[in-house]
Amino acid sequence: MPPIRVLTALDQARTQYYHFKAIVIAGMGLFTDSYDLFCIAPVMKLIGRVYYAPADDPSRVDDDGGRPRPGVTPPAVVSANVGVALLGAVAGNLVFGALGDRAGRRRVYGASLLLMLCASVGSGFSVCRTRGCALASLCLFRFFLGVAVGGDYPLSATIMSEFANRRTRGAFIAAVFSMQGFGILASSMVIMAVAAAFDRYTGRRAPLDDTPEAADLAWRIILMIGAVPAAVTFYWRMAMPETARFTALVEHDVVKATHDIGRVLADLDLASITEEEVAAFRRTTPPAQFGLTTASSYGLFSRRFLRRHGRDLFACASAWFLLDIPYYSSTLFQSQIYRPWFPPAEHVNAFQEAFNVAKFQAIIAVASSIPGYIVAVLLIDRVGRRRLQMAGFFLMAVFLFALAGPYDRYWRGHATDAWYIVLYALTFFSANLGPNTTTFILPAELFPARFRSTCHGISGAAGKLGALIGAIGFLWASQDRDRSKVLAGAGYEPGIGMMYALIILGGICLLGLAVTYLFTPETMRRSLEENESDNGNSQAAEGDAGQRFQELAELPKSPASMVSSHVSSSPSTPVFCLKLKQ
């Protein structure tokens, strides 16, 4: 089948202003995702001070039986808030990914952003101010926020991949994903600003004085500010045209695809190719008067899909699953890193504690996360997705083992050693340089247009399941095996210890490296249509069938017997499953 020239023009288009505009518009969902993920740790500090104050629980005393400890959010509550958001993201990936292939990318893109906006505001309001009601409503709204954020993953990646040219497609999608790094930095800056303002407003309370009621307002403001990026970009999302690939390949409207892309991209000679596109499309579309259908209509759950794309879907979903276990675990490991560098909770008030956590997150974002994303943008179309993914998994394993091996014998007592933070920062750098970026890109490049968003959603849902295992499992497993060393009064139970938890995470990274080596194909500098085609014989069969179909379309109208005899003479007709109307 000859290529549709408007799609060829897209692949060959120079980089233009609209590409950068699309990066910002598509990246706001990822920006909000990381904002909400990384702001929850300081928010949990404030919630612990407000709703689990020592006055409410006299059992919270220090090891010497002296003054009560500051309020600490129980691990079950932390797990619930993290878990419901990730479960929502699983559902959002699957639901919005499927809708993107059925209703169109643009039609559901605004809906996911609107849900994200409403859920962010709702998380801040959380209905009421009593502990049980506030936390239950917070979990409810964070679930819907997770649905919206999860839905944004397949839509943003698919839209950017279908707008980009083949030379810089990887860099554009990586740039969309890099908005996560800036979301981390923004959340830290907002928390520091809000905490500093409230600390000054309340007169810089003593550490163990009653937490002011203003703290209950502070965490709500922090969560609601997450709605601002979504609100700012809502108009531009609704004004985006549908992608030309969806319109041409799924809706079979080449004229509209040509018109839509001409509205946003300049220097494309679209006027001269419109008539040729329509003619070519008619030649390669089954003639309605003969009642012919093509085998390209196979479904997502068919054996043919499994044979053609099952390996790629397994590669994408399993790599994302394996990546998110250590990646989300590492975000929770931060508490073990920053604790020796800042005053203990007994020596700071609620706002100062939240400020210190956010400050450390900002340092990690600037020193490792954002540079990792930037290097990925620069290298993704030079080195390739597969090599970067393998290198990232390997380096993550090396740095996690370097933290784990001497943890009990050395790092535990030398937590203020600069190399301790450097090794931790390098795990984030390696993840963002490699698999954290490439697992977002590959599902948007490997699958046919009519399955692209759905398959990306399935891969993303697998990743969020891994994140759920990593975040909640690590929170409990990393606790010390000695009960006397577990944080008193917080409700934690002894685990396997930090050293063994880190060793397991390093082993998972090596497994991700093996999966990538064995199953992941390279997509660099190939058009989306080339990436989605079959390997070997199936590609040749489709080419022969397309040629026969052109010959059939060019014949004058003839009786059904002529069509039947012409079609039956072609050895490739089973690929097209030609069928006559009765």
UniProtKB/TrEMBL annotation:
Outline the segment boundaries, as ranges, of region: Disordered.
528-582
Q: Name one GO biological process term.
A: phosphate ion transport
Q: Which organism is it from?
A: Miscanthus lutarioriparius
Q: Which family does it belong to?
A: Belongs to the major facilitator superfamily. Phosphate:H(+) symporter (TC 2.A.1.9) family.
Q: Which SUPFAM superfamilies match?
A: MFS general substrate transporter (SSF103473)
The membrane topology term of the UniProt record is: Multi-pass membrane protein
Q: Where is the composition biased (Low complexity)?
A: 558-575
Q: A GO molecular function for this record?
A: symporter activity
Coiled coil recorded as keyword: no
Instruction: Supply the name of the protein.
Output: H(+)/Pi cotransporter
Subcellular locations according to the entry: Membrane
Q: Which residues form the Major facilitator superfamily (MFS) profile domain?
A: 22-524
